[in-house]
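pasting for ref
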Amino acid sequence: MGNKVKKILLVEDEAIIAMRESLELKEAGYSVQQVSSGEVAVTRLQSREEMPDLILMDIDLGRGMDGTETAAIILKKHDVPIVFLSSHTEKTIVEKTEKITSYGYVVKNSGLTVLDASIKMAFKLHEAHLSNKQSRAEIGIANEELNASIENLKATNDKLEKAYRALATKDELLSMTGRIGRIGSWEYDPATAKFEWSEEIYRIHDIDPTEPIDLKSTIGCYVGESRIEIRKAFRSLFESKKEFDLEFEIETAQGIRKWVRTIGKSGIGDGREEKQYGTMQDVTERKLAELEVRKTNRVYTVISQINQMIVRARDKEEIYREACRIAVEYGGFLLAWVGLLDGEGKTVVPVAWTGNRVYLDKLKFIPVDDTAWGNGPTGLAVKRGRYYACNDIATDPHMAPWRDAALESGFRSSISLPFTVEGKTIGAFTLYSSTASFFSEQETRLLDEVTRDISFAIETLENDARRKAAETALRQSEEHYRFLTENMKDVVWTLDTETMRFLYVSPSVQRLRGYSTEEIMAGPVDAALTPETAEALKTSIRQRAAEFIAEGRKPEAFYTDEVEQPCRNGGTVWTEVITRFDISKETGHVLSHGVTRDITDRRRLREEYRIKAEELENFFSLSLDLLCIGNTTGHFLKLNAAWEKNMGYTLAELEGIRFLDLVHPDDLQSTLDAVDSLKNQEDVVALVNRYRHRDGSYRWIEWHSHSSGTLVYAVASDITEHRKTEEALRSLVTQKETLMKELQHRVKNNLGIISSLLSLESGRLSEESSREILDNAINRIQAITSLYERLYRSPDLASIDIALYIEDLTDSIFKTINIDGDRIRLTTRIEQISLDMRHTVPLGLILNELIMNALKYAYPGDTGGTIHVELESSGTTITLKVSDEGVGLPELLDPDASSGLGFSLVSLLAGQLGGEVRVERGKGTHVAVSFPI
């Protein structure tokens, strides 16, 4: 291991244990640094201070990270051996450390011999680990270099072969590429500022091959922003040899727009001068196809999103609003708006929009007339009842009134699609695109289809709204609208009672049962009924037909039946069938005209209502809580059986009487106040009062009440036993507090006995140093005794008044060592702070050590002065200051390296509190200890 002193970082939260372990390790020849928490250990290593050779890690580190978590974080960045030192021997704890790269596990108090041997073994294991790691790295580097050399040789050989083949076929490939791929080549000579084009590039530009071409004329062919981008590309190629591969739009000499792909590179020409060269390919067909695909995909996305929205929409306004939003967000349209005809059908008024609102504000409304304003795309779509596509706003005469505003807004094409509901046009959906000729036949067909879907959804919503309104009206006056209700069924049919075959069945039968009209009419009536109902219903129809004939053929009689009918999917549907009878003019047979409606939900709801009613009645009658219905005049109307069990009265005795007559006189006013709240329709929660039992005793009742008009619905609980239990618990708490006081008093007395015994032993010692050790121990015990004395007198067993505790402690110190109050005085400035025992014990010991050091060093001999004690808080930090105006600490005494227990104990206890110690020399000694709470 060499002669170098090994550095060990000891991570231990218990200050006294850390001190002992540090001393033992130092005696074994190690350099030791100690920290009290995992967070501090990680921070120290991250700050790149001198790295330790080994970390001795406790597992249980109190608050914050434990030892295994700390070790895992450290080993992510540092390759350092870690030995776990713990009092735990459980298998689960040991296995937890084995999952981390550790170098040993030592049980605390195993002795220095075991610990030293474990540390030395860890160093040997780590050295072997580093040696293996270096060997593997060297082998890996050698392999990588060898593989790289092989790959370079292969690549060089491939390049030579490819270059040879390329030179042999260059002319042929260039010629073939130009002919088949419509690719031309170009070369630019910076010295002459001239281009050389192949024939294919001249053809792409529609230019005579004999015409000279320079850089300016080349760039001039590019359109709009493409001209700026190609100029930048050439500049980068000339100045920094940055190659480019770009696609731009050009305009040929014949005024034709084309898309070209241009590639530019820099190289050495035949004369060894630097030139730029490249290729150009006509990609118009591919580019237009890509644009068409993207455009179509956008339209498909709009259709998909709108169809999904239609399913979720709750009203027409949401459909209009969301359709506009989807068209702009997913379709990329600059503006989408919905306009509806006003009540008179004379103007189209915008009701929803997304996009360029400025243009729409100028639009305001569209008249539906024969003026130029009424013959725009939207007006034409509404008047004709079919879409109108304007694929060039700049030239379309129908856009004349709005052309300037539209072009200024960036619109180049538009389409208006009418909404048709129940055969009537109600408005239009208008979209604007930034691209001319956007609305091809395919896009127009798709958009027209989705507009029809919107129209159908609106029609469905309106039908649903009318149906709901009708149902509401029917519930209010069922007899008056009975005929209308019975004839608004789903399926209308006519049956010949002689042949028992259907003469007509409406198409809605397919929605109801899954069969088509043709399938139903092709079979007998039995096929429309389940076997259980077929014979009975046929018999009933024949009897009613006979009665119809016997009673004079009066068609006023209607019959209603509930019938279970089979469906194509194998299930059944319950229907309500309403029938009346008539005579066929063609055959003279009795006809049964009927309307069938689906009542599956009604039967289900009826059954659910019956079950819920039974459940409610069972709940009311079987509940263990006290349930009742009363009124705001103070009377019971209905109660459950729990009242009989809890109060002793029968339900017959309670129902109808005034519940106020049962309330305890002392609780009557609070009960009347609660009744007033219920009259104001305010809920009453957790009202507690007493009710008279039949035997004359009173029971405690807790109420939760809700009012509806003059009725009161209440749930109550008998909490009499609960109240008794609370009283018993309060008594137990009082007894516990008394016992804790007695226990604290006994601990204080026992500490006093220990202090007295040590004092007696101190008096028998002749050596000054031995007496000083015992006196110091007595003072530390007195510090803890003062704490228990103060805790005994404190009304709060969980916290200590620090100001009173420090006053007791300092008085005890001065009395114990018999200080002349005229020679050495003590001043205190203590904030009113309360701390728990975990903070107070270390703080008291720190204060004891600092005062004893001040008495020992500040005023030697007969000199006198003042010792100042201050305690203050700032946010979440507590600071204890002890200072004097004396001669100060001896020059040779270094508090940070002192071997004495006093300053070492102060430093360790401050670390245990998570704080720090600052010592200032000068005129006297000033010590400050700060720690968080």
